[in-house]
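Minutes, project huddle
Topic: does the predicted pose make sense with zinc ion bound?
PN asked that the exact inputs be recorded in the minutes so nobody has to dig through chat later. Recorded below.
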Amino acid sequence: MGKWWLVGLLYFLGSFMTEAKLTDLAEPPDWSSLDSFQKSISKQEFITQLNEVYCPRDSWWSPWIEVEKNRARIRKKNGSDEWYDLHFSESNKSANQSSCSFQISGSKILIDPGHIGGDFSVMEGRHFSIGDDKPVMEGELALSVALLVKSELERKGAEVDLTRYYNEPVTISRPKDFDDLAMSWFRKMEWLHGLSEDEKSMRIKKRKELYFYRVSEIIARSEIIRKKKPDLILCIHLNAAPWPDPEKKSLVSRNDYHVLVNGCYMGGELAYDNQRYEMIWRLLNRWDVSERFIAEHMSKAFAQNTGLPAFAYKGPNALKIGEVEGVWARNLLANRIYEAPVVFLEPYIANSEVVYQRIQLGEYSGTKIINGELRSNLILEYAESVVYGLEKALSKTE
Ligand SMILES: [Zn+2]
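Predicted holo structure (tokens), as shared on screen:
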């Protein structure tokens, strides 16, 4: 019999070590899909893109990407020695260097109203109410804005579609479909094993819900997007501030806006095979060029139309992009896996005194005096800012 059992065991351990490391519900990446980008980017541009947009710290990317004279080597699988070789273009000028070149008329724009709303807004944590007031549901507000933006852009000749038209999920999955996944997650979370039985089942239930309303939902939307091949995706959200006291729900005075592009992949994120691939895929598509261009115009439009100050991040999870204030890069599931340039809008603090009051007033026509100023309704102001920003951006296209 000899030592065959040992060989078998080593083989088993070896295959375990090189098993793909993927985020929840992600497919293993197809690295050969990068082949069409061979020799399309210079070494200098590749490094600049990493440093200024996608991964600002060498220590975050250096375990996964080796930059040599003529090629970048990208580790295909966590824990294995398989590499994807991306050859650089020889000249410093890149082969298909893109500039943002489309107009509203004739362009395909996809609007993604953030979250689900309706019966799911409490579960997805995008719901709050104070006393007997109408509850605030981000998903429903986002859909109202998206529908207005759609009709206005269509009037200007764009082809516009939404990822959802109702306050209902796009995914056909539901939390119960993630029993096994949540259990295997729980088994790995050893520090949770000492909790009370009630607390344990609460954590598992929350995990199943998260797989449903975030992961599975965004993957379902990404599949719609893959079929539609839009020129641009606008993700519509409203921001909220942490409650000073979660028990009391007292409104905050902070109110601001910011606009996100994709980028700022941190070390722990690049350890996932799919996230590493997705970052390189976006970089090679040069989607950051259009994202930044549109985002900067959006940021200026929101500053001008709403009078709000720009929000600035402090932590390492966001990276300042360019000089225009309010434009930041973050790595979010939606702006990572949606296959097109994605501009992610985060104006207004929904639980601020002023915005809360405006949300309660609903979609009135004309203007009302709010905080001593004549304002149109919040949904309309949001939609008009988006259309104005896009018009400004695309009228300047060379
Ligand atoms: Zn949101």
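Observations noted during the meeting:
- The domain at 108-170+225-395 is CATH 3.40.630.40 (Aminopeptidase).
- The radius of gyration is 23 Å.
No decisions taken; revisit at the next huddle.
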